[in-house]
Amino acid sequence: MEGTMKDKLKFRGPLKHFIRWPLYLSIFLGILNILVYMTDVKAGILVTIGFLIYIMIAVGLQKYHRPMILNDLIAFANQYDVLERRMLEELALPYGIMDMEGRMIWSNKMFSQLTGKDPFYKKNIETIFPEITRDKLPVTGKKETSEISTEFNGRIYRVSMQRVTMKDVVNHAEVLENIENDVSMIAVYLYDETELKEYIQKNEDNKLVVALAYLDNYEEALESVEDVRRSLLIALIDRKITKYFSNFDGLVRKLEKDKYFLIMRQSSLEALKEQRFHILEEVKTVNIGNEMAVTLSIGIGLNGSTYLQNYEYSRTAIEMALGRGGDQVVIKNESNITYFGGKAQQMEKSTRVKARVKAQALKEFISTKDRVVVMGHKITDVDALGAAIGIYRAGKTLGKPVHIVVNDPTTSIRPLMAGYMENPDYEPSMFVDSSQAKELVDNNTVVVVVDTNKPSYTECQDLLYLTKTIVVLDHHRRGNEVIENAVLSYVEPYASSTCEMVAEILQYFYDGLRLRSQEADCIYAGIMIDTNNFTTRAGVRTFEAAAFLRRNGADVTRVRKMLRDNIDSYKARAEAVRSAEIYHECFAIAKCPSEGLESPTVVGAQAANELLNIAGVKASFVLTSYNNEVYISARAIDEVNVQVMMERMGGGGHLNIAGAQVKDTLENTEKMLKDIIEQICQEEEKK
Questions:
Q1: CB under 8 Å to 57, separation ≥6 — which residues?
Q2: What whole-number distance in Å separates Cα of residue 248 and Cα of residue 31?
Q3: Cβ proximity of 450 and 387 under 8 Å
Q4: What is the tens place of the pLDDT at every residue in 236-285?
Q5: Which of 103, 381, 495, 624 would staple 604 via disulfide (CB 3.0–4.6 Å)?
Q6: Contact 372/445 with Cβ under 8 angstroms?
Q7: Span 522-550, mean pLDDT?
Q8: pLDDT in tens, 585-623
């Protein structure tokens, strides 16, 4: 029987040819024998005798060695399966097999020792590693492999899962047949990456972080202290800052009287984040009789490809911190920006030097170009229109053609615009839409953006890419999105309105500049709207700007008549106030009806102002659905920073006046707003 079986067994592949090569060589010898016969018959006979002896020896050796080789191959084949299984079981890498549902089938010795489970543990792998849920497994037809990082018994493992199709494997067996392609199993491997992760984390922790710290109101604070005590105030502030960062292994060097350069490790920065940069509050506690508390702004740069890039990030961050009003920390890396603090309202500067410098720079840019195009934000409001009118007068004073971009005038600005469109003293091309503006703008055009510093919020974003001369005038705090490459940027969050800033600029722009009463009315109206009739965020310079406009013919009664509401808007505002919900005892949330209203967003903003008059309300939020978007108007008095809340919804603004636009339903937007209020409240409780 054994002999019969061996007779039936045959070699195949390279081994078959290797065994038969002596026979293949005999063909060559036969041909050689024929050639020798053709040369010499006697020599051919001699070669034939040698050829026959070679054939007999080759065949004999093959007959003799073939059974021995077969025996060795059969013995190896019998032991190979055991050897293979033994190698898997003894494999130093934890290895297991599970079905497509994640249920364990078998695991090797290392896997069992690691998990403490039997090699034939039959429960789902999720009972061992909760992170490996069903959606993380390789799915037939979608992904062949899957990887996940998990922590087990204090070690970090990279779990690699490979889907293995069983058709080609099982069909060769005699037990099962016709296995389909979608019958698969999952091989799972565990790679211990604890040390690798530790080294990566250590490398991350030791990365260099560069920071710049500026005292926001250094000069103003010193002015409120006696001369003999000023050096003491400076020394106390220096000591407070140096000691604070030294406790976190940071190096502090003073660059100027109110500027500091900081270097620290990234691990120190994480510790500062956990404390939410308590230094901002500690600096305010330094008081030796100064009437004004000192505030600090910090700009931090990290994760740059070079140390120089980190420094550039920190410079950008400190500019944003100051542009947002100071008293805050801005952290910038390659991909995002994070904010901390920013609760204090920036103090109004008493000096107008900056306004004079910006006015002269604006004059130079307009003088050297052929034309001026002014645009505000989408859904132009009174502040944006008033500021644009001020720039219009500045350009016309220098003899330049000026155009104002307004696409869809709202009911709030139509009465103001009508006074120009019906007046023969103003050219018909004073107001243009986006398509007309694109035809006007070229490299010899100055594009002035007013009342916004976000490119996506402008009336026509394309204009920003059609010219290199862009001027930005705004009073909103800067966010992550800013207009790049502006040749002149004047962003002052302390200003009540952009109209206030423009009124100051006009005073220093040109000696012969004189506003017409109609233009003064528009600018005055912008200040009135943004200050809620001079009750919100109105400072000394606000009233000085209003006085300048009054001297140029602005009439309060005329402005008030232009800004009156129609009955539908008044009813909608009243309905929003009536249906308002008081959330967390101090947040008023209302939905403003928009049906039948030409400018529902304006009504929503007015309703938000009205809700602040209710006792106990610290902040108000009015949601208005308009053009398939939900517009949120947020207002606060002094205790709540609505700007931070709106930034989390993709918007921005000021501490007490902010807004956002969300492409979602009213219900989902309201839920999102409430979730953000919950987060803010929880963060406040942790402090």
A1: none
A2: 91
A3: yes
A4: 999 999 999 999 989 999 998 889 999 999 888 988 988 888 898 888 88
A5: 624
A6: yes
A7: 88
A8: 899 999 999 887 877 888 898 899 889 989 989 999 999
Q: How far is CA 472 from the centre of its chain?
A: 24
Average pLDDT (528-546) is 86
DSSP 377: B
**Distance (Å, whole) CA 261 – CA 314:** 10
Sign (positive or negative) of CA dihedral 549, 550, 554, 558:
positive
**Paired strand residues for 165:** 184
Please tell me the pTM assigned to this model: 0.59
Q: For residue 632, how many other CB atoms are within 10 A of its CB?
A: 29
125 has which bridge partners? none
666 Cβ contact partners less than 8 Å away, ≥ 6 residues apart: 591, 623, 625, 630
* Nearest Cα residue to 255 out of 201, 206, 195, 314: 314
Report how far residue 526's alpha carbon sits from residue 523's, in angstroms, rounded to the nearest whole number: 5
Cα(145)–Cα(149) distance, integer angstroms: 14
- pLDDT > 90 in the chain, percent: 31
The number of CA neighbours under 13 Å toward the Cβ of 13 is 1
Say if residues 333 and 310 touch (Cβ distance below 8 Å).
no
The edge-to-edge listing of strands for the beta sheet with 445-450 is 431-432, 402-405, 371-375, 445-450, 470-474, 488-491
- The CA-atom distances, in angstroms, between 150 and each of 131, 270, 525 are 7, 23, 61
- Quote the CA–CA distance of 625 and 456 in Å, as a whole number: 19
What mean pLDDT is reported for the chain? 84
d(CA 56, CA 313): 88
Residue bearing tokens 């606060």: 636
Amino acid at 222: L
Q: Which amino acid is present at 12? A: R
The two structure tokens encoding residue 285? 């506690």
Q: Would you tell me how many other CB atoms lie within 10 Å of the CB of residue 20?
A: 13
Q: How far apart are CA 2 and CA 42, in angstroms?
A: 48
Choose among 279, 302, 343, 128: nearest CA to 211.
302
Length of the chain equals 687
Task: For residue 635, give Cα distances in angstroms to 499, 513, 571, 604, 611.
Answer: 20, 36, 20, 11, 9
In terms of Cα–Cα distance, which of 584, 655, 582, 579 is closest to 624?
Answer: 579
Cβ 321 vs Cβ 299: under 8 Å: yes
Of 178, 530, 270, 258, the C-alpha closest to 386 is 530
Q: Evaluate whether 321 touches 297 at the Cβ level (below 8 Å).
A: yes
Q: Name residues whose C-beta falls within 8 Å of residue 498's C-beta, 6 or more positions apart in sequence.
A: 383, 384, 386, 387, 450, 451, 473, 474, 475, 526
